[in-house]
Model the fold of this input.
Amino acid sequence: MADQKNSKPLMTGFMLSTQLMEVDGCNRCQECMKWCPTFAVRPDRPGITPMYKNARWRELMAKSHSLRAKIFGAKPLNDDEMKVFTEDTYSCTTCGVCGTVCEAGIRTVELWEAMRPNLVARGDGPVGKQNMFPKLVKADRNPYMAKQEDRLCWVPKDVKVQESGEIVYFAGCTAAYRQQALGVATVRILDSLGVPFAMLGKDEWCCASAMVRTGQRDVMAEHAVHNVDALKDAGAKKVLFACAGCLRNAAVDWPLWYEGYIPYETMPLSVFLRDAIRKGEINYKIPLNYAVTYHDPCHNGRHLMHLKGKDWSFESPRDCVQSIPGIKFRDMVRNRALQRCCGAGGGVKAGIPDLALDCAKARVRDGEEVSAEVIASTCPFCRRNIMDGRNDAKSGIKVLDVVELMAASMGLDMTIPENPYTKFQEQDVLVCGPAECKLDTVERKAPGKDEVGEAH
Amino acid sequence: MAFYTLGLTFNLVILLTVIILAVWIYGIYFNFKKWGLGSTGYHDQLRNSFWLFLATWVHEAFKDGLWVFLRTVVLDVLLLRRTLARSPVRWVMHMSMFYGFLALAAMSGFALFLDIIEHFNLAGLAHEAEMVKEMLGLPFDVFGYLLLIGATIAVSRRILLKFVRDNTTAYDAFLIGAVFLITITGFYAEWMRGNSFLIGNLFEYPVYAPHFALIHTVLAIGLFALVLPWSKYIHVIATPMTLIANRGGE
Done:
């Protein structure tokens, strides 16, 4: 029966009043159910789909705020129903495909992200290991229990990184500590183009995406304000991101927490590189004779397409991949705004890892359907999860970042300098000779101290 | 469609209409106040206010200017662009029901207004009001058939398509069943009067026509005032408001 905690009504304060209206705006057309990536792998749980979540929220709210409740008094919420609703709400990767297809125009990503803090404040959420995010990030300013002083430990000595400048590369925690091949490829390309760029080093704090996604907003404010101030202090006019999660947070979430003027533009690295390709500044040397498909990260695609435009979100990374000689590019059936989420987002990878894994396997199957040898992406988290799905499905498909494909084809030295995190590296890589590159996988040599895995 | 039977008089109908409208308006107020339980901005405190909900909605609706507001109203609310993008069949269904229902509701209100003119012979226009009412017969039939087409598609989808059927709840069945029933009883009441559009005298039975008209009216009013604002069918109001507030979700 209801205990003291559950006698509290459903909290609504983190939702905009227009979002409460949106819940009632769901006309139950079922379109979201056809596209939901988690329902696709959990067809026995319709409760995780947007249509049912809205219906459930309405029912729970009605216990305190319906006409019946006004006349006869509120009904308490009980443990079981709140537990089920919380699990359902957190079994969502916040990929936003439901919002893309919603006939009622409901902004579902914002809606789910507004529902979750209410559950956290009431003591129902988050789920699984998600509650580790704020503790880890507050303690170390990154989720990997790594030292801030080591933020740039992977940067090759011959690459010139400035302390300040108009162009700043915001690497993100994963490229700095777990997928350093991405970081090395990025700085190598920028260096080869002669672009003077700065990095924040120990002043770069976690973007705090995982906290916003899981409704744990407390640490977010501190990190958003710090990062914006650090970028301003560095004199940034253009901030480049090779991590879709960081980009999304910097473009959408940080400004919500920062009260002052933000003088810089946030830009996906693929857009910057495409401009260089168009200007003829990229010089490819080695053809990559692979069939490559592109997985649109939700955070770089659907989440930003209304803000940055579909060309930036969907076409620029494809243009980069297709510019590489030798590559046979083929899109998966579900692509661009209707793409299938990899399953890692919304804290699902940390909170409900088996669900994330099943979603990733579905995405790997999408890649296999078009006979791709490589799934390219622009998000380290998608990459991590799709690799996990690939391993679990025992598929031969490789998963790489678009930047790494470009750097390999440009014949750049992709060697990662030895550093304290070398043993934690686990990623597919391209090993290149003078005339050709071969796909390989680097195995992790130590279990690492990852408390929550990699999730955004 | 006359329904003055079983002791129902003109004055009683007017009184019931006022009560029903009051219930409906209170229902809308009640929902707006419930939505006001949310905040007015990302960091704002809880306000719990009917007026601040309205202010938030107006702010969201006009955030990108009047042109975007008007474009959203036309493309997304009136033409259901997002539905068309996903399913042409569902678009035909929604458009038929939306415009059928809206036109019939508006014409019913207008007919009641004409009834009042006729009853009190306001400005000596009783005869003219009666003539206009006669002229409304054809549009009533046309929009009635439009609603019938939409309701038939809706019921058929729920029965014939397995995925849709499997995820149909009692709520869905009740709403669509009620709309279908209201439409059918309306038609049947009209057909019983004889000399009907398309049907002629096939179902003529004028003695019971007012009874069926009364059943139709009670069902329609019951759904409109006593069910719609107090249940999830409030989406009839909330969906267009959501589309406008979110600029069509685009």
Notes: The first strand of chain A starts at residue 167 and ends at 170. Chain A touches chain B through 39 residues (CB under 8 Å). The mean pLDDT of chain A is 94.
